[in-house]
Amino acid sequence: MVTIRDREARETTSARETALACVAAGIDAARPERVVEGCVSLDGDDLRVGAATYDLAGRDEVVVLGGGNAASQVARALAGVLGDRLDGGAVVTDDPVAVPGVDVLESDHPVPSARGVAATERLLAAAGDCGPDALVLAVLTGGGSAVLPAPAGDLTLDDLQAATSALLDSGAPIHDVNAVRKHVSAVKGGRLARAIAPAQVVTLAFSDVVGDDLDVIASGPTVPDTSTYGDALAVLDEHDVDAPETIRDHLQRGANGDRPETPTPDDPVFTDATEHVLANGRTALDAASAIARDRGYEPLLLAAETEGEAREVGGVHAAVAREIRASGNPVEPPAVLLSGGELTVTVRGTGAGGPNQECALAAAAAGLPGDTAFACVDTDGLDGARDAAGAVVDDETVEDSASARGALGANDAGGFLADRNALLRTGPTGTNVNDLRVLVVE
């Protein structure tokens, strides 16, 4: 079970206690060992994934390849199912656990690193070693875009680091961010599938993106790409991204036709490829909802696919809480309102924090009514670049709204909330199905 550090110190009211119980249950429900146990099984030569069956008879080898925050946890769960039918593989992650027979290669998140490049090179080499009669289980989870850096063409790690930082600070949605990442990478946008071909590829994904778009999860290394070099250039212009000229030049040459596009749906590398989303944000939301109902609250899902600026979403949640208190709409209290998705922050200040911390502080600054609590976390345990999963707030968190607004203006929600003992720390959780927000109204 996920551990929220100093949890008792943050459970100062019944509303806070319920909020944290819902958060913990949501994260636990999305942990790979539970998810894989529920949807992957082996019966003789038949490997079952959901409703699909894959015949292992006659396979030269069964291999696990992939990357992401939870990649080694998923690989370990698969090794438990497959036993001696698993012949090896390699996964790249920033949260390593040992996996029998599989190389677990360490990388970094959210900005690419040198050891990430070296690990991704080893992953690509393992992909190239797969024979035509291999079955490759491609494990892809949230965080894969960062932990799988492989500079394309003449680009360097410095180019990728600068472009990644600029994209993350721009407030661009993840679909746009990953359109760029796919076109400056030698592994993303279907290129890992190209390295594996003609072996059969079965993609097993833990989704951290709104809509579960497979070409966006981990930037889609094993699935067809629906974006183009031209789309990537448009992202830089639309969001005023200060990317290095080397990045722009690389993308422009691709748009001019001087570089091959990423593999599209009609590419033969996908002839023997299938995909499964094993867990997503609704996995966590459903579990949190069940806890709320068991405790006597009426759960209400506001939206599973919320996007937008974190501080604006926080203000909306505060307004909904006030409406419930005033009129009983959209649900009579006691109630627990839930939302998921992925929020963004347009960074203009130099403070510390992340989208969930900004969302929580914005709600508290906008005015939460009494007897409420609002918990916001990133289910991977790392919200932005700070070592916090998010925060829990209530009507007593902000005594001076002007100072709270100043912290938001400086993008220093983390600093403000740390001083008020409101940050939630879990460490890496072993999963990643994006944001989970729990609003409790007594």
Explain how this protein is built.
The chain has 442 residues and is of the alpha/beta class. The chain folds into 2 domains: 7-27 and 297-441, glycerate kinase, domain 1, CATH 3.40.1480.10; 32-150 and 185-227 and 262-279, Rossmann fold, CATH 3.40.50. It has 16 helices and 15 strands. The strands form 3 sheets. The chain has a 6-stranded parallel beta sheet, sandwiched between helices. The chain has a 6-stranded mixed beta sheet with strand order 10-11-15-12-13-14, sandwiched between helices. Strands 1-2-3 form a 3-stranded antiparallel beta sheet. The radius of gyration is 22 Å and the shape is globular. The two termini are 26 Å apart. The model has no long low-confidence stretch (mean pLDDT 96).
Q: Briefly, what is this?
A:
The protein is of the alpha/beta class. 38% of the residues lie in helices and 21% in strands. The protein is built from 16 helices and 15 strands.
Question: CATH class of the largest domain, please?
Answer: Alpha Beta
How many helices? The count is: 16
> How would you describe the shape?
globular
The percent range for helix content is 25-40%
Described by strand count, sense and barrel closure, the largest sheet is: 6 strands, parallel
Radius of gyration from the CA trace? 22 Å
Give the low-confidence spans. none
**Total separate domains:** 2
Look at the structure and name the CATH superfamily of the largest domain.
Glycerate kinase, MOFRL-like N-terminal domain
> Could you say what the CATH topology of the largest domain is called?
Rossmann fold
